[in-house]
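lol ok so funny story. i was supposed to be doing the assay writeup but got distracted and ended up predicting the structure for this chain instead. priorities right. anyway since i did it might as well share w the group, maybe its usefull for someone
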Amino acid sequence: MINKNIISRAQEFARNAHEPIFAITIAGVKRPQIMHIQEVADLVWASGGSDEEITAAWLHDSVEDTQTSLNDIEKHFGKMVMSIVHGLTDLDEFKNLPLPERKRRQAERVRSESDSVRRVKIADQTSNVRFLATDPTNSMTFDECGQYIQGAKLIADECKGISPLLDKLFNEAYLKGLKRYFPS
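and the output, tada:
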């Protein structure tokens, strides 16, 4: 496999795979899924992520949200990228769990994953919490948004120290989310 332009190839792959996926926010905005994926890749890049980590950031939701398989990821982007994406993809047994339990299990799992997986995971959680704190999707209830933010904190705590920048950005998003869903 040729590694030339791996990031731009992953970007194109993700844009094509996620093209039909979008969410409607509570403000009525049709937000394409690729906006989230772009933000995760940008956060991984800004935090000093490697080419493989940035590539995996572009692909991190592909297995869960599209027809893409881990074999497809390995075929097009190599074993290392596939390994990172695998570490970011929920196990089948997580899929039907209540949200708080699913987030707890994700936190437990990420604890034993590589630094690369943890870098992309905290970037992913940062992006998700930012969206929930500002204009969440209308498919989640107010309580679910609050539960998600609390669960994201468990995950971010397991990723602490991978990147001071990502730690700071997650904390800022988390505090904004707390104000919205847990005002005191």
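The CA atoms of residues 141 and 161 lie 32 Å apart. Strands lie at 22-24, 30-32.
back to the writeup now i swear
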